[in-house]
Amino acid sequence: YDQDAYAGADLQFIGTLQTNKVKYLIGKVSLIQSVGSDHLGKAIAKEAAKKDLCQDILIEVNIGREEAKSGLLPEELTSAVEELSALPSLRIRGLMAIPPIADQETGNTPYFQKMRQLYDGLAALDLPNVKMDYLSMGMTDDFREERLRHSLRRGGLVPPGRCPVFTVFIFHLPGKRCPESHRR
In angstroms, rounded to a whole number, what is the distance separating the alpha carbons of residues 139 and 134? Predict the structure, then answer.
């Protein structure tokens, strides 16, 4: 990045982030999509404040309660968001989750529904520095499976479409036009 290889691009970070690496991202990425603890959120806020910036983040939720995955458990979410919302150098833009591998019967629909409930609950709190307009969940295969499942329930066929090989699908909510950088 320091060599301007991505000049003009909207860079976002998704993945595991160690607190000692936060300083390398602040001011270089528009959104950190995987803030899975209040400790990490505070580290991001501290570095952003040093640079007199406000960093946009998504809070990662461990919706499947998987030991191998990071993220806040659903019952920890509200208190963590309330605590982080008090930090003026952070702006919480929404939630992010990667659900467990889907079973054939129900797929990941229950996890996606629970994420939407959590999202709506946080949005209703109307907290400072919280602008709930992103809900990022699942991987490409989750999206394909949900489209197929939804289409089969309705008795139709899935129309052919292009899905990026390595991406989450992001819903820009509620009723706002998705930024140009997120359209495909």
Answer: 15
